[in-house]
Amino acid sequence: MMTQPAPPSSHILKDLTEITLPEAVGWWPQTIGWQILGILALIFLLLWGVYRYRLYHFNRYRREALRAITTLELSRGRSPSQPVMSDLFLVLKVTAAHVQPELASHMDRQFLRYLDTSASLAEGFDSPVGLGWLDTLVQPETTLSDRQMQQLLALAHRWVIRHRNPNQPRLLWRGR
């Protein structure tokens, strides 16, 4: 049979007392400066999150236009060029009218210039290809080459991504 060892009964350990442990260090900053900085950082993140949320919902029209242009690019080989180019014009017209409603009635070179200037396109729609595009909309017997159609689809894609919209939500600290 085994016996349990007895605690030491040495005279050195007789008066030993337990030491008190310090309190655990808290995670909350102790100085007021760090607390203010933390609160300001949280406010900034909240405002930035609200801005990004508003911007996401505001740019829904861009996502829909890009989706329509991608669909047109995919259907380009399966259907004649005339409906694809008129559908592309319709997509750009609706998108531009969403940005500036007074453009809804234009179907001329002024519309092509607007597309170029609103997205800062150097080699853009106001070119022989763009004018030929307008001609195909009015005169169905006029056609565009495959390369010209591809160029117009690429320009349209670039315009939808890059155009400036004056109604776009702004950061609160930047003003209107």
Topology of this structure?
Layout: H1 32-58, H2 60-75, H3 81-99, H4 109-118, H5 128-138, H6 146-162
Gyration radius (Cα, Å) is 34 Å
The number of distinct β-strands equals 0
Q: What's the story with the biggest beta sheet? A: none
Class by SSE composition: mainly alpha
Order of helices and strands: HHHHHH
Distance between the termini: 89 Å
Residue-averaged pLDDT, rounded? 84
Kindly state the percentage of residues in helix. 55-70%
Protein architecture, described:
The protein is mainly α and 176 residues long. Helix content is 57%, strand content 0%. It contains 6 helices and no strands. Helix 2 packs antiparallel against helix 3 and helix 3 runs parallel beside helix 6. It is elongated, with a radius of gyration of 34 Å. The model has no long low-confidence stretch (mean pLDDT 84).
Defining key terms:
elongated, mainly alpha, 176 residues, 57% helix
